[in-house]
## 1
Amino acid sequence: MTVRRATAEPRWVRLLLTGVALGFLFLFLVLPLIAVFWEAFAHGAQAYWEALKDSEAQSAMLLTLTIAAVVLPFNIAFGVAAAWAIAKFEFRGKSLLTTLIDLPFAVSPVVAGLIFIILFGAQGFFGSWLAANDIKIIFALPGMVLATLFVTFPFVARELIPLMQAQGRDEEEAAISLGASGWQMFWRVTVPNIKWGLMYGVILANARAMGEFGAVSVVSGHIRGETNTLPLHVEILYNEYNQIGAFAAATVLAFLGLVTLVAKTVVEWRMRKETEMLTADLPPEKTELPQTVATERP
Amino acid sequence: MFPAPAKRDGVLPGFRLGLGYTLTYLTLLVLIPLGGMILMTGKLTWGGFWEIATTERALASYRVTFGASLFAAIVNAVFGLIVAWVLVRYPFPGKRFVDALVDLPFALPTAVAGITLATLYAENGWVGQFLAKLGIKVAFTPLGIVVALIFVTLPFVVRTLQPVIEDIEAEVEEAAASLGATRWQTFVRVLLPGIFPAWLTGFTLAFSRAIGEFGSVIFIAGNMPLISEITPLLIISKLEQYDLIGATALAVVMLVISFVMLLLINLLQWWAANRHAKGDDAEPAEALAPGALVEARP
């Protein structure tokens, strides 16, 4: 008989709990993930490739990539600016500002789309003016970009704020007092310090930008080959009972999701390493670590 | 409202630029659009607003939305606690992989989750066929909505509990054990009160996300008015009938609910942080309180 520590559960409890946890995760996470690929290849690889080579699928992918490419620079600029002001300076109304930055997370995606219809739609505040000047925002790319900007608004900022707060002002102040200009300090001190946190926020924002459904669906108008993003393309095919086509497009998105998970895990690991190095009082940086993905070991 | 920073922060540049950019971007992208929505309801009298917000169909949609969200959040609270506990405390092969997988719902586009779960839980699906034999119908019923919401909100409870369980000091459990408590008594009387605020925060985050969710739900819900129609879908169907005012009225109801949830989450985190701070006079609550909605926290 083995001796059990007084602060550990009996073996059967541990096995039971582990079984329940893994069973739950298998049922709700692993099984759907398998099912996406299974359904897509249900009629063989040939049908799968045909579905992906479809011109509407191609233009949907292109549109999804375009939106992400337009949205991410805005997210980065805003995230860095907001985190700089909030983390490095004291001012009144700071916690109100932080709460307002979180606001888009609390708003339903459908409402996020609707607010831009209210502003720019045909019956909206600027609708007639836009129509008179022949500017299309709703049911066109600008509206979809705006809706995506709204739903991805907090991601980068809320990764960077706690990180830059923890890092404090010392290094930047040293750079300035040694005669660096503002931008020199920013590029040589701040950016290297926040690069992994920034990367983390960008990964999350990108996943949301490429996968967003509700908000984009409201403003897109679902014009085939023109304003259909990949998630909307999935919906249309699914509603037409085109299982293969819908799931083939879905595998592309699922693959992006998996890449996101891997990238996120790698960045988390890098961030943990760097904090450990800082707390261990080793010279930060320069103790170059192997960059490969495969080395994720404790 | 946002005066210049105190003198002692004066060394670092970029406060005006950072804050100015942040406030401009926030105002243009978030505050003006949300304000526009409130302004739009100004076209209604209070009575008219109330009439739209309390039609039989609207009330039924609130019941479905809130009921399913509550159900899903409770399921995730129970299983999330078990998953978090197992991931922190018990060693098992593939643990890192399982841990990374928990974030899948944040990375997988909701439309993909929606069509996959609808296929899995349909009467001839992998899971649905077994449930059908028991006489349980999931897809195209309110129960389907619950399944979709469990998937979408799965990471919240796990991710808020994990760091808190990691931080439990071994001495606490040892003391309880040496004073003669059984393992169950230690858990219920000593550990549970400690992790309760985080647990409640995770639950509220999951609930608040579930209320607004759209993409994953519509594929599996069946969307029958009065039975399985969620409020975001009702907003969209009003929009498709060119009833912008009606859609806006319902959206305002949802927005108010989001505000209340956001406030509640902030209060909960403030409470949790304060409790924590009192215990070991760690960092003041301010440092932890502002960040409200934890999206994919490591």
Note: Chain A touches chain B through 115 residues (CB under 8 Å).
## 2
Amino acid sequence: MKGRASRGRSRSRLHAVAAAIVAVAMLAVAAPASAQWSSTATADVSVSAGYPQLLGGNWLTCRGPETYQNYVNSIGGDFKAVANAVPAISSFMVYRTIAGVTTSNLWSTTTPAPVNDQNQLNYMFHDVGGAFYNWPPVGSPMTVWVRPMYQNGWLGPASNSITVLRASGTLVLTCTA
Amino acid sequence: MKRVWGLVIGAVVVAGVGAGTTLALWNNSQTSGAATLKTGVLTVAVGGQSTYTVGPLSALYPGSVVPFRFTVNGAASGHLGLTASMQSVSLADPSPQSAALFNAMTAQLYVQTSPSDSCTSSATPTGTQLYGSSGAFAPLNSMMTAPNILIPVGAGMSQPDHTARASAYLCMRLSLPAATPATIGGVNINDATTSFRIVVTGQGVR
């Protein structure tokens, strides 16, 4: 009886080993059947950061001479503020190029008025009292353009430019689109 | 015990053959009836092309949303099924400005049922959101490390010619958070341009 039981256990072990071997063999043969084919394609995306153009960019104009603040010979480049622009404009950066050298200044660091009034014009070369400033030297054309300023220091696209020419102590303005 | 070792060796040999090695211990042959060997071809494309160009997109500023669509097309013949996934997103232009803008951007991705489904800057797209959740945006640069985004491509192996053809209509929207400053880490991104590559992988399965 003992010998028969021993042979039985031995046979069981043999069956288990054989079953394991068959399983390994089946896995080995079956592995290629689960192979996959693959193919790739790509999308190349490019994107630029910046605000959209305002009014087609043509919002810088020339004015004068005309009466302004009771000053009869008021002459200056100015621009219409875009009060209803979305997103809202907080100010402008004004750029001036004379003889190839460009400088820039913030239009206003305090109140945006009258920038925020669509019906007002902003004179770039004199203050409300009629005092002129930002004149170019006599005979040196000055090219001027502006960029709207948004929150967190973002600047919008540049406007068109105007050329200011001072001759014999007066300002003669010509505009370019 | 000898039989056990014999079986073990035999199994190792079978496993070796199955794994593609050329271990030939036995040599035997039989003639079988005519068999049909089926081959399969799998193609995947974006917008019908292997390399699809999007952009240049513009008007990306703090608080804005810039949408674009692209379609993943796939075909798998030879009784293959088809799956597709967004395998990777990588920065193509590594310049400091490009990288700063890329790292500031957020994105969301939707799969839609039709190319005419809404995909605009003003409204949450229709369809199923694959990236981002609950209609929200998630950092674009996290797509670089996200696991494969499975793109449901629909049809299986039911085509009469045994070729699975399917398309997935995707709507991706890019954004900059409203508080994004013009200068990040000393790099001005005001007029920066960035470019990145999306890799889509199609897989034929049986």
Note: Residues 22-35 of chain A have pLDDT under 50 and may be disordered.
